[in-house]
Amino acid sequence: VRNNTITIDADAATKISVGILDMQLRDEYAEATEITGNIFNVAPVSYAAVINLRQLEGTADAPVLLANNVINLTSLNASYSAFKFNGDKIKHVNVANNTIRMTGEQGGAAFWASSKLSEGYGNVLVVNNIIQNESNGYAVNLYHDDNLAEGLFTFQNNTFYTAGETFFRASSSTTGDFDAFVEKTGATDCINEKVNFLSDLILEPADDLEGQLLTAKPLSYVSVDVNGTERNAETPTIGAYEYSDENEPPVLAEG
Fold first, then answer.
1. Taking the model in full, what pTM does it have?
2. What is the pLDDT of residue 46?
């Protein structure tokens, strides 16, 4: 699933009962399944998980890749999520260099795993992503304390933010701020800062957060950004876009 642009306007009576991109991968394959380079600017009037992944059967040699996707979701209630693992059979998945943003009201979680993973599943690498919830929901919801076990979800070199009072949740008894998230998950080299974007619709970074956005982990399998721009080999940018100080917000034409 590559290089699609999906737009749902706020004034459109678009009702969604499943995910906007709703996927099950029930079998292992020799070649990696990829969801890359897709842009979602969506404001559905009913429940929505933008990327809703029910089952992913990746392998160590051919992990499922979700990279360079841009998700811009306007939320209306706590069931909304920008990115959701919505099942217990998720294994060998790389979630890399995506820009995930929620705005609106009562957003559930920008990044949400909604089930306890089954035995033998996991190896989910979440690396180099912007995960930002500008509503009052969580940045991350991992649903169950067992999902905190080593080797299930690994967080590296991400930028996180939520406007909500509670940064993350793993269960009703395990919630906390960014520091608690790092302690519970073992996240490494992650940042707790709000990213500024060029506009509400163009999620290229407007600045590099004084260099903090230029601390992505170089990945051979994400060598370009969503625009096809080659990534810096030593200091790539966190998120779907490579940062340039020449980026400017769009200007309305006169007339």
1. 0.94
2. 74
